[in-house]
Amino acid sequence: MPEQWQILRRQPGSALFIVLYKTIIQLLRMLWPLLLLWFMRKPGNEAKIDPWEIGVGAISIGVFLLSILTFYTFRFCIQGEDLVVKKGVLVRRQIIMPLHRIQAVHVEENWLHQLLDLAQISLDSPGTEETEVRITLRKRDAESFRQYIVGHARVKQASEASESNIKPKEEILFQLSTPDLFKLGLSANHLEAFFIMLAFGFSTLDNLERAINVEFSGVMRWLSDNAASSTAAALLFVAIAILMLSMVISIIRIVLQYGRFVFSEVDKGYRIQSGLINLKEKLIPFRKVQYISWKANWLRSKLPIFMLHFHVIGDENMRRKWTIKIPITQPEFVDKLLTYYHPQLDAAAGYLRVHPKYIVRRVLLAGLLPAALFFTIGYLNFGWMALWLLLLPIYTLIAAWLFQRKFRLYTDADALQVHRGVFGKEYIVLRWENIQSVAIRQGIYQRRHGLATLRLYTADKFISIPFILVADAEQLRDYAIAKIESGK
């Protein structure tokens, strides 16, 4: 082990700028309405200092001093087989994290980190969020520290002399090119980008109303009145403009999120680097993966482009930190990523399908009954315009038919694979031994027709196999339980 990590040490002095920058951002997020009000005050009141200004200034200075003291009291080192972290100003804390218990090492570099030649390392171990440790180091030290933590288990097993100079092997599997980023942006969910933009606009107006005490509801009435009186051409122009703006926002989001994307394989898992400005690095251990899924919307399925997701074991906090969607721009990349887990099952083999009775029940419960209820309420308020609500059963019928038509369940001795989707496509590969429990559910309608829904629970989520024959559900349940009990 490098001797530099055995000595109790602080973070580099340049990391203080990172702390001050984060403190400024937090203060701006909390106090920006007050700052806006201060800038928009009436002329002639500049010389007058209000009590609230003194209070805000005192609080800001106190927060800055606390951040600086917190930075200088943070120290860490490696003692034997443990990472020791000491921190705290008023309340001193000491965290001892066994190296072999560290589940993942994440590296993050935002624009300020890159400017100062720094990197932030996040260490996760089993337990609650308080056990997480973030350390800012110089880039060369961060890489050395990360490699030691990642390779610690292997070094522990072999002799220190023979393993001390060995670095974990790394093989780059694929990277994203500029055309890949452009295709991802064009095929993204532009409706999501539109609603994000809309929510940001309403949130900004609401904050401005509170800050400067000005009512903006008149602006919304003016927009609605003009929309009602405008011609179809004007409305079409507005719709196209909104669509183009949403596409631009989607492309910008994709480029910022997946710029400089590199996916590589190391000794213990997959290493993912992503981010144009804020570079983030995550390590997904092989042993933590419960199952793998990849899916695409209708447009991406035609290109084809898929977003792959590793479903990992751990509590909700751990799963959120490790969650990252891997853009797959070439179908052969999927086979590479499934190599260590389990290859895709042979599509020519036999499979189970969802029973056609699923369509009838789905249309009844999610189509006809809600449409009748909403039409009754809508007719009393909008008259015959409520007839549009009767399109809901038609949409439900199409969606249920597509789901039933696309659903496939393939099985072999070691794993199962699910194909499903409505307008898009989704694929799931799950090894039998990663199933934690199995449940068979039957409603009244299913019992009448000899059908059941099978739920396969993993440490992450459950996978539902709906509306299959009871005999098939019981056979799958018994086999899954046998694999769980045998541990093979």
Describe this structure in words.
The chain has 488 residues and is an alpha+beta fold. Among the domains are: 3-168, no CATH class; 189-257, no CATH class; 357-403, no CATH class. It is built from 17 helices and 19 strands. The chain has helices spanning 15-39, 51-73, 111-115, 139-150, 152-157, 160-163, 178-186, 190-212, 217-229, 232-258, 298-302, 316-322, 332-337, 357-382, 391-406, 444-448, 470-486, and strands at 75-79, 82-87, 93-98, 104-109, 118-124, 133-138, 170-175, 262-266, 269-274, 279-285, 289-296, 306-312, 325-328, 408-411, 415-420, 425-431, 437-441, 451-457, 462-469. The strands form four sheets. The protein has a seven-stranded antiparallel β-sheet. A six-stranded antiparallel β-sheet has the order 13-12-11-16-15-14. Strand 1 (75-79) and strand 2 form a beta hairpin. Helix 1 runs antiparallel to helix 2. The longest helix has 27 residues, at 232-258. The chain is globular. 22% of the residues are buried. The model is unreliable at 157-167 (pLDDT under 50).
Count of distinct strands: 19
Instruction: Output mean pLDDT.
Output: 81
Low-confidence segments, given as residue ranges, are 157-167
Largest sheet: 7 strands, antiparallel
What structural category do the secondary elements indicate?
alpha+beta
What is the count of DSSP helices, taking H or I runs of 4+ residues? 17
Q: What's the multimeric state?
A: single chain
Distance between the termini: 37 Å
Shape designation:
globular
Order of strands, widest sheet: 6-5-4-10-9-8-7
Please give the radius of gyration in angstroms.
28 Å
How large is the share of residues in beta strands?
15-25%
Helix content range? 40-55%
